Amino acid sequence: MKVATRQRAYLREAFVTLLLARLAVSVVAPARLFAWAERPPRHIRRFAADEAGWVAWAVGTIAARPWMNALCLPRALAAHAMLRRRGIASLLCLGVARDGGQLAAHAWVEVGDRKIAGETEAERFTRLTAFGGAVAP
To answer: Rounded mean pLDDT of 67-84?
Structure first.
């Protein structure tokens, strides 16, 4: 597959997945949303590291558009869904940090040791919980 064709395919999927994630955050109960995120992928593909980079790029590109207005939780949900669809085990992480006198929250996705979909701010947050079922070796 040509690079331009692959880019368009990933961008289309990221657009649809981000729209669904934004809708899910506003409509679906958090318990159901995180129960879905807890399930592992049906099939595990262990050697698909380059796919995670493509997913991170596509979600970041579409979410950065001003008309999308996607915050960190829909971004993380979309990336987690796209990775699960490809059989890549990932963790949807939620963390908190003090921002002045206020408490700030953030969501990001981890694939192995890499942080994607929210990686720029994830370093200053303390992880509270992670969703993404256990992967059998």
So the answer is: 92
Q: Is residue 82 classed as helix, strand or coil in its secondary structure?
A: helix
- Burial code (b: 16+ CB inside 10 Å, e: under 16) for 81-101 equals bbbbebebbbbbbbbeeeeee
Instruction: Check: CB of residue 7 under 8 Å from CB of residue 62.
Output: no
Rounded mean pLDDT, 87-113: 89
Range 96-105 contact pairs with CB under 8 angstroms and sequence separation of 24 or more: 96/125, 96/126, 96/128, 97/124, 97/125, 97/126
| Residue extents of the structural domains in the chain | 3-131
pTM of the model: 0.88
